[in-house]
Design goal:
The chain is of the alpha/beta class. The chain contains 15 helices and 22 strands.
Length: 496
């Protein structure tokens, strides 16, 4: 794949500002260049925001069903380009090709789902306490939205934000993660091909410290949707709060999978391998801890190690590969540092804990899938690692499993494997997480259901599902009095 040059997309045009500096993205499996991009500056951000601000009144006035029709055209373009985009996801980010296809399919599913919201955007009607008076709520767009996205789901997360913002009547300035800027650019091209009016979606690449902060600080940006790490999320939240802006954060996870003594162990193993090592553990929903009921601990660990001995790490475009590289040199260094932390804290590395070397491995950022036996409260059991390192903990019973599962500062996804229906429903109540799976691993949500978490995982909002529009809309309360006289709620009603 050649390193195609991409510019900024502002007011419906691709442009290459004179004198701009550039950066490149690379294939984490080969370190070959994938794309070259403009390092945008404050003036570029200002022009993008101005374009979105100008386009907002006309886009807001476009009937929501018409906006939905445009999103359906976007979905058609994504479907036609699915294999091409999937291979780009794998090439630029490193996840195996089956997951690359899943990333794009999630984009298609969500854009189609949001297109349907164009005929809903539901408010509510309620009875008035007075006669001849009608009470209702309507949803209205917020204005210019900043969509700031991560590298690990480089088509689906941008589309989560962009499609929900657009169907709600907002205009968008989109800043992708620099590591997957080509995926971001190609997403913008799908909207361009579908006929989105100029200025409704703008695209600026560059660093978070420059582009991201300029977006957050501009008073014309009324809503910020950010997915990324906790510390950066805090900074985004504080900067946005200074302007009294709507700030939606989707942050980290330290997701537990509980396996009880009555579980289907083969099913749990299948789920664990995908949950822990799919996307090389680089998901906020990755299964990073498995809590094993003591009676099945030894058997389950033995089966897990047997499976890992034949688990293939390598070229992510090869259909037979189970895990590709981590996404970058920085990711590799971070995960390897946790291998050392585990050793220093006295954890037992049951499998892996190494950088893979030789042959194709020397060209990329390949690590072993790693399993470490540890204890509650250890660093690898409590800190988000975002890589292929699974912490294994022994628990004596259900109550201890829940206590250990909940003792971390995150609360995104959770899972329990059991055949006991009573225990499964207790877990739904007891686990501190935005998502709970029964007899499936800690993966993400289907697009028709809300996605998000509690505690340090975010600040309370949800993406996906019908609630996705909530972060991008304001509720207006409307009273229609057709009594033809002055009526005073509470006062007149109290008088009968």
């Amino acid at each position: 794949m050649t390193a195609t040059q991409y510019g900024l997309f502002i007011d419906g045009h691709w442009e290459h500002p004179a004198g701009a500096t550039h950066f490149a993205t690379t294939n984490p499996a080969t370190r070959e260049p994938v794309g070259e991009f403009v390092s945008g500056g404050p003036k570029d951000v200002e022009r993008a925001i101005a374009s979105a601000h100008r386009a907002f009144p006309a886009w807001k006035a476009t009937p929501a069903p018409r906006r939905g029709e445009l999103l359906l055209r976007v979905a058609e373009v994504l479907r036609r380009r699915k294999e091409e985009l999937a291979r780009l996801v794998t090439t630029e980010m490193g996840k195996v090709i089956a997951e690359g296809r899943g990333d794009v399919q999630e984009s298609i599913d969500f854009v189609e789902y949001m297109a349907g919201e164009g005929r809903r955007l539901a408010g509510e009607t309620v009875p008035s306490e007075l006669r001849h008076k009608f009470c209702l709520t309507v949803r209205q767009p917020k204005g210019v939205v900043a969509a700031i996205t991560p590298w690990n789901f480089p088509t689906s997360i941008p589309n989560w934000k962009i499609a929900a913002a657009l169907i709600s009547g907002n205009t968008v300035v989109f800043k992708p993660a620099s590591a997957t800027a080509r995926c971001g650019a190609e997403i913008v091209r799908t909207y361009e091909e579908a006929g989105l009016p100029a200025g409704v979606l703008n695209f600026v690449t560059g660093s978070g410290g420059t582009v991201g902060n300029a977006l957050i600080d501009d008073p014309r940006v009324r809503a910020i949707s950010f997915t990324g790490g906790v510390e950066t999320g805090r900074e985004v939240y504080l900067r946005g709060a200074k302007g009294l802006k709507s700030v939606h954060l989707e942050l980290g996870g330290k997701n537990p999978m509980i396996v009880m003594e009555d579980a289907n162990l083969e099913l749990a193993l299948d789920g664990l391998l995908f949950g822990a090592f799919g996307t090389a553990g680089q998901r906020c929903t990755a299964t990073s801890r498995v809590l094993l009921h003591a009676p099945i601990y030894d058997e389950f660990v033995g089966r897990l190690l047997d499976r890992l001995r034949t688990f293939r790490v390598g070229n992510p475009l090869d259909e037979s590969t189970g895990m590709g590289p981590v996404a970058s040199a920085d990711q590799e260094a971070k995960v390897r540092s946790y291998f050392d932390i585990a050793r220093k804290e006295g954890d037992t590395l049951l499998f892996g804990g190494e950088k893979l070397l030789g042959g194709e491995y020397d060209r990329g950022y390949f690590l072993t899938p790693t399993v470490a036996a540890t204890r509650a409260g250890s660093r690898i059991a409590t800190e988000e690692i975002f890589g292929p390192l699974l912490a294994v903990l022994r628990v004596k019973d259900y109550d201890e499993a829940v206590r250990v599962a909940n003792e971390v500062s995150y609360g995104l996804s959770s899972a329990i494997y059991t055949r006991d229906v009573n225990r499964a429903f207790r877990a739904i109540e007891d686990l501190e997480a935005g998502i709970t799976y029964v007899n499936a691993p800690t993966i993400g949500a289907e697009v028709q259901l809300p996605f998000g978490g509690v505690k340090n995982t975010g600040n309370g909002g949800r993406e996906a599902g019908s609630v996705a529009i909530e972060e991008f809309t304001e509720i207006k309360t409307v009273f229609v009095d057709f009594s033809d006289r002055l009526q005073k709620a509470q006062i007149d009603a109290a008088d009968g």
